């Protein structure tokens, strides 16, 4: 089944047609993760607040729903999960990476293990892609950085643990009057 068909099945199964701005299908097509709105206090981050939400996983047919993670606050911005954006499965389908708003100029990449629901910080960037390599999964992430000429965006290749390996592609300059971007809007 293709991704759109799986998402439509999920929409019918949970009764929320059209709510798939944030969802992903596992590489083997057996599972779908999606974001569901939750109730409770807003979650603060470096440039605002987000409504609470939850990350869920179901079988491809919409059965066996499992809550993987909820948004939550923390004094350490690396531990804050304010939202679930840019959902990406690991190549083996066991892990789900996501970007959450964090600092005013940068998001944070987190990962949750679907087998035990453990969630952790990976790096201070925005997830773009997961690549399977002989050395394990590598992440392509975007990061806001500064040099003598001001701020810019750059993509990087990092390990699944968040260790930066090398830049990927070109720098994208950000005009000083442009709004700060933290999501997967990196070129």
Q: Brief overview, please?
A:
The chain is mainly beta. It has one helix spanning 3-14; strands at residues 23-25, 31-37, 43-45, 48-50, 53-59, 66-70, 85-89, 95-101, 107-113, 119-123, 126-133, 136-147, 150-159, 164-173. The strands form four sheets. Strands 1-2-5-6 form a four-stranded antiparallel beta sheet, covered by helices on one side. A four-stranded antiparallel beta sheet has the order 7-8-9-10, with no helix packed on it. A four-stranded antiparallel beta sheet has the order 11-12-13-14, with no helix packed on it.
Summarize the SSE layout with pairings.
Blueprint: H1 3-14, E1 23-25, E2 31-37, E3 43-45, E4 48-50, E5 53-59, E6 66-70, E7 85-89, E8 95-101, E9 107-113, E10 119-123, E11 126-133, E12 136-147, E13 150-159, E14 164-173
Antiparallel strand pairs: 1-2, 2-5, 3-4, 5-6, 7-8, 8-9, 9-10, 11-12, 12-13, 13-14
Q: Can you walk through the features of this model?
A:
This protein has 187 residues and is mostly beta strands. The protein has a domain at 3-126. Helices cover 6% and strands 49% of the residues. The chain has 1 helix and 14 strands, in the order αββββββββββββββ. The strands form 4 sheets. It has a 4-stranded antiparallel beta sheet, covered by helices on one side. A hairpin with a 6-residue loop joins strand 5 (53-59) and strand 6. The two termini are 29 Å apart. Residues 12-18 and 175-187 have low confidence and may be disordered.
């Amino acid at each position: 089944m293709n991704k759109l068909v799986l998402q439509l099945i999920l929409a019918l199964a949970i009764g929320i047609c059209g709510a798939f701005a944030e969802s992903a299908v596992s590489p083997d097509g057996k599972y779908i993760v999606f974001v569901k709105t939750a109730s409770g206090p807003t979650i603060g981050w470096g440039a605002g607040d987000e409504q609470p939400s939850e990350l869920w996983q179901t079988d491809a047919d919409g059965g066996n729903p499992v809550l993987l993670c909820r948004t939550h606050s923390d004094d350490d911005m690396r531990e804050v999960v304010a939202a679930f954006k840019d959902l990406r499965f690991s190549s083996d389908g066991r892990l789900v990476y996501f970007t959450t708003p964090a600092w005013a100029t940068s998001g944070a990449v987190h990962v949750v293990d679907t087998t035990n629901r453990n969630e952790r910080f990976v790096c201070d960037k925005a997830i773009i892609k997961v690549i399977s390599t002989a050395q394990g999964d590598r992440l392509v992430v975007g990061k806001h950085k500064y040099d003598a000429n001001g701020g810019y965006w750059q993509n990087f290749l990092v390990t699944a643990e968040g260790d930066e390996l090398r830049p990927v592609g070109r720098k994208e300059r950000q005009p000083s009057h442009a709004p700060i971007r933290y999501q997967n809007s990196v070129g």
